[in-house]
Amino acid sequence: MFTGIVEELGEITAVENLGDACRFRLRGPVVTDGAKHGDSIAVNGVCLTVVDHEGDEFTADVMAETLNRSSLGALDVGSRVNLERPTAVGARLGGHIVQGHVDGTGAVLERKPSDNWEIIKISLPADLARYVVEKGSITVDGISLTVVDAGPDYFTVSLIPTTLALTTLGIKQPGDPVNLEVDVVAKYVERLLGATK
């Protein structure tokens, strides 16, 4: 489990095409500290498994299902990525419950800067709109955020300077894809109440 509190802005240093999958090599000195084979690390909100670790870099295999359902397939050498290690039992839950299981992708639609924050409007797939509510939680590229406004095919978030400086949302431009994970509690409630898609 993750919390959506990004630990560092990492970088893709190599991409190996494996046909129906790929292997990423990523640099992240914070998340690699103490990392070992089999550990989980969220990369732009996608839970990946550490295959190998050397120095401040690690490798992770990404299968076709993940490439098709997330924006990871658009990454290349030099791409910046949000990195987070799983939350330790008993640690503070700074964001919200994040599984690292991407529900879909959206795209940055527009950015509205202000003196002390920035509003970003992001497209929302129709099948996810029912899970996104004003003042609710959503994960964008692995970042736990509060929804400011929720429309039928978009939502907005307000970003503080720290988020802009320390995550990929500081550099994403209109048209850039982002990974979305809706609040898992909403999905469980829907299922328990017997709602249909």
From TrEMBL:
<dbReference type="InterPro" id="IPR023366">
    <property type="entry name" value="ATP_synth_asu-like_sf"/>
</dbReference>
<protein>
    <recommendedName>
        <fullName>Riboflavin synthase</fullName>
        <ecNumber>2.5.1.9</ecNumber>
    </recommendedName>
</protein>
<dbReference type="InterPro" id="IPR017938">
    <property type="entry name" value="Riboflavin_synthase-like_b-brl"/>
</dbReference>
<keyword id="KW-0677">Repeat</keyword>
<feature type="domain" description="Lumazine-binding">
    <location>
        <begin position="97"/>
        <end position="193"/>
    </location>
</feature>
<keyword id="KW-0686">Riboflavin biosynthesis</keyword>
<dbReference type="Pfam" id="PF00677">
    <property type="entry name" value="Lum_binding"/>
</dbReference>
<comment type="pathway">
    <text>Cofactor biosynthesis; riboflavin biosynthesis; riboflavin from 2-hydroxy-3-oxobutyl phosphate and 5-amino-6-(D-ribitylamino)uracil: step 2/2.</text>
</comment>
<comment type="subunit">
    <text>Homotrimer.</text>
</comment>
<comment type="function">
    <text>Catalyzes the dismutation of two molecules of 6,7-dimethyl-8-ribityllumazine, resulting in the formation of riboflavin and 5-amino-6-(D-ribitylamino)uracil.</text>
</comment>
<dbReference type="GO" id="GO:0004746">
    <property type="term" value="F:riboflavin synthase activity"/>
</dbReference>
<dbReference type="GO" id="GO:0009231">
    <property type="term" value="P:riboflavin biosynthetic process"/>
</dbReference>
<dbReference type="InterPro" id="IPR026017">
    <property type="entry name" value="Lumazine-bd_dom"/>
</dbReference>
<feature type="repeat" description="Lumazine-binding">
    <location>
        <begin position="97"/>
        <end position="193"/>
    </location>
</feature>
<keyword id="KW-0808">Transferase</keyword>
<dbReference type="InterPro" id="IPR001783">
    <property type="entry name" value="Lumazine-bd"/>
</dbReference>
<feature type="domain" description="Lumazine-binding">
    <location>
        <begin position="1"/>
        <end position="96"/>
    </location>
</feature>
<feature type="repeat" description="Lumazine-binding">
    <location>
        <begin position="1"/>
        <end position="96"/>
    </location>
</feature>
